[in-house]
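example protein:
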Amino acid sequence: MTYGIFVHTRKKKMQTKRVILIAILAILVIAASFVGTRVWTSLNSKATTSNYPEITEYNGQKLSSINDFRENSIKGPQTINIGNYRLTTTGLVENETAYTYDDVINNHTHYQKVVTLHCVEGWDVAILWEGIRVKDLLEEAGYNQTAQVLIFHAQDGYTTSLPLSYIINNQIMIAYKMNGVILPPERGFPFQLVAEGKYGYKWIKWITGIEVSNDTNYRGYWEGYGYDNNANLP
């Protein structure tokens, strides 16, 4: 009888060890995936060099060059067929919208502002952005003002979210020009979010959709790998 209890206890201990080992291996796989993604991004992050007819100064402030950006998108630069392109506003709205590029550019007030993008990789660029306020698009769609979150979607599958109050109170815009030049494909044509005061992973490029939501637990691409969802600059 005692031997039977001993064998049973030993088997139970072995099963417990097996479960712990599997759990440790799972954690190691997840960690390796995260580190590998960071290494891949770092190795593939490179400056682009093209000749753009960009301005170099605005109201006495020296501007960075478009060539000072580094390419670090998750699937490489996207090429969008502007003839088929639609910018949608969905979710908690009265009227879902689907704008053409010309609808956005020609039928909304334009704003200009010099804002610096800070990347978590350690580089930054001060650029004159020109674009349309997200608030104006939301108002046309009749957004629910009790909603808490905006989720932005991109052509390459990238997503990120930001508090609706941040977007409204800071008059955040989607840009279609930088330093007086229409956004090049590698820089997010047709639209890039100018997420002032946030790290670069919130500055989503190649925007295709704006979703009004109450899902405060939503996490975008990099946030899903552990990046801070607030992304506030120090």
Residues 53-225 form a domain with the Sulfite Oxidase; Chain A, domain 2 fold (CATH 3.90.420.10).
